[in-house]
Amino acid sequence: MGVTILQQYPVKDKTGPQTIELLSKRITALGAKQTGQFIVDCETHVASSPQMGGTQRTVHVLHNSEQPASVFSILDTGTKTIPVVADTLFDFLIVKLNTVLVKRQRIETRGPRYELCDFCIKIGSVTMGQNFKGVLLEVEYKPSVIPGSCWDFMKEFIQGFLGNTALNIVPQYLQNRMDQVYQPIDTIQQYLEHFNMFRKTTGILQYQ
Length: 208
Description:
Blueprint: E1 3-9, H1 16-29, E2 33-47, E3 58-64, E4 70-76, E5 81-87, H2 89-96, E6 101-103, E7 107-116, E8 119-128, E9 131-141, H3 147-162, H4 184-200
Antiparallel strand pairs: 1-9, 2-3, 2-6, 2-7, 3-4, 4-5, 7-8, 8-9
């Protein structure tokens, strides 16, 4: 597990599958080899009744095919978020809490997984229910666990196939974590941020 950067990719005059095919061709032209498929999913549950004071508690439960034995949960209390990493029994616990938690629509991203030297690249189609929402690109640099040590290298690699205007600044989630050891939960936190953005809007920044 190295450092991962998650990036939305604009879907302009193409369908989702056409956009993924375009990115796949760019990656393979660099010499990348497909090594299977991946999926990251998120189920969001809200408390059936708010806390005193009207604060709504939300529990996000996420799974990543890269860590099949783990279940990631992020509790949003309204004032802070609390991440938890558990085993697969956590899913059964959530089912038991269906009388106090109301499940909202599931959102997921899935698609091809590629490897190129020290990089792992995943191109995912984001769907919510039956609705296509956009495309997410995940790039992992496996030799490093400190974002600040590999940021410039990763930026240059990503700009090599997305364009020079892509990823000009450090993603907001990583800005205060550049000197910290990167963990799998950090990837999950980035996915949740993007999933929440897709839930709110389909507007995506354009690259030149």
